[in-house]
Specification:
mainly alpha, 0% strand, rod-shaped
Length: 107
């Protein structure tokens, strides 16, 4: 999209330049036309850059939102895995406590 608009602007500038060289009209008339076309091109380029800027901003925000969502999912999955690890360790601790009881002497 950016390349196409840049190509369009470049084509307009080249066309305007060729128009000046081949213009059968008076110099003032040609300059006025060029000025008018130059302003149109400037406005079009400004509009295109604004559009590109908005597109980039939307894309960046979308990526940021996706990253936040992925991070939230990762945290959730990690939490479940951590819970499983804690449960496993608690079971192992209970087994060790029972083994330790058998080793304790009663007086």
């Amino acid at each position: 999209m950016i390349i196409n608009k840049g190509t369009l602007a470049l084509g307009l500038l080249v066309g305007a330049g060729i128009g000046v060289l081949l213009a059968p009209e008076k110099g003032k008339t040609t300059r006025d036309k060029l000025k008018k076309e130059g302003l149109k091109i400037k406005d079009q380029i400004t509009e295109d850059f604004t559009e590109v800027k908005e597109d980039l901003s939307k894309t960046a925000q979308s990526g940021k939102d996706k990253f936040k969502e992925d991070l939230k999912d990762f945290a959730s999955k990690t939490s479940y895995t951590t819970e499983k690890a804690i449960t496993f360790l608690e079971k192992q601790l209970a087994i060790l406590k029972e083994k330790n009881k058998t080793l304790q002497q009663t007086s």
